[in-house]
Amino acid sequence: MTNEHIVRSFAQELQRLSNLITQMGGVAEAQVGSAIKAVARRDVALAAQVMQADTRLDEYEREIDTETIRLLALRQPMAQDLREIVSALKIASDLERIGDYAANVAKRSLALAQVPVVRPTAGIPRMGRLVEEILKDVLDAFIERDVEKAIGAWRRDEELDDLYTSLFREVLTYMMEDPRNITPCTHLLFMAKNLERIGDHATNIAETIHFLVVGGPLIMDRPKGDDSSFAVVQPDQTAP
Amino acid sequence: MTNEHIVRSFAQELQRLSNLITQMGGVAEAQVGSAIKAVARRDVALAAQVMQADTRLDEYEREIDTETIRLLALRQPMAQDLREIVSALKIASDLERIGDYAANVAKRSLALAQVPVVRPTAGIPRMGRLVEEILKDVLDAFIERDVEKAIGAWRRDEELDDLYTSLFREVLTYMMEDPRNITPCTHLLFMAKNLERIGDHATNIAETIHFLVVGGPLIMDRPKGDDSSFAVVQPDQTAP
């Protein structure tokens, strides 16, 4: 009887931990969505809201950290249960970072709202839509323990890297056209980089889901990282 | 007898885990140092070496991950031992990210080596020296389990943020002076950002050391993040 009671209650505790991750994922997703909206609409109030709400993700991470350590100490879990707990620790850390990047996008949108609109700003919501899709798929994959969906999202990160690299080049040419574009375009570059990093953390979560469900690391061939780090764009591309 | 043997061998396993972190920390430190050298000396071969060696840190992280999960499952540790293992997991993740940022600095130094030197490049070794010091202190603090040293390093991250913010503004003005500076200066901005992020991960490690030794989270008042996200620099600062 007592034994059965403990077993059931450990399952409940694991479910609660999993629910915490799901909730935290929902908050992170909302933060990313709002940050992108704040850029597109030059909505300073929304940006401020995103920056303030970032502490909620820090609190979630602390709560999940404490809970995982408590469960590890009290329950001494093995196999699948142990993977559940270690995965929670890892995913909470990725979601916290995603929140930081969303808050930084929001913060930079304030600087952007002080100056006239620059054309490449439109690239941010375009990248943003893809980031939101990848993040949504990864979080669904976590809830459904769906490895295929996780791998699908993980593969799409490459599209995001491509989008980032092309936006990077576009923004550079705008900077060269008019020095007044330099400050807003620099913020755009960092915003785009933040979105690309959110994608990287989403792929980390996909890898953790693979570990959680399958039990081993995801080792596959996927071109990683963006090419913008190599980019050299000349001011006048037609010059000899 | 048997019991004593198990106790001693668990202590040895924990020591081995701790040594793995120390070794990984040494590799990360060397990677950061070499990346900064590659920028300062426009050393393309060294940059390529840093980029290649990044896989070593990925391997360390995988080994530490596997080892922590094995120890959690087999040893079912509690209290201090449990904190040792969870800390190893967290620190390995931070060191892996530090390696990624070092590799990205190296990668960008290749783009920079293709164009004439731009003046603000000198800011990178300046930031780099501080990053190296902070990282060294944090790794020493881990080896010595020295919370005071960890907190000291954690506080110095603020200097790094200040250095980053002033370099950010300096680089923007160079971009405005001459459009040929825009591409190299953009890489400088991202390099500086990478160094600033390495500092953030070093402070994460300092916080983990606090958790490891003291048993609770480090909650202190320290201004966090850089101010460059708010920066608006005008092309002609003397204009009406």
Automatic annotation (TrEMBL), chains A, B:
Principal cellular location given in the protein's record: cytoplasm
One Pfam match: PhoU
Domain PhoU: 21-108, 124-208
InterPro entries in the record: PhoU, PhoU-like_sf, PhoU_dom
Presence of keyword Cytoplasm: yes
Top-rank lineage group of the source organism: Bacteria
Coiled coil: none
TM stretches of this protein: none
Compartments, as annotated in UniProt: Cytoplasm
Keywords of this entry: Cytoplasm, Phosphate transport, Transport
Annotated function: Plays a role in the regulation of phosphate uptake.
Family that this chain belongs to: Belongs to the PhoU family.
Record text on subunit structure and interactions: Homodimer.
Protein's name according to its UniProt entry: Phosphate-specific transport system accessory protein PhoU
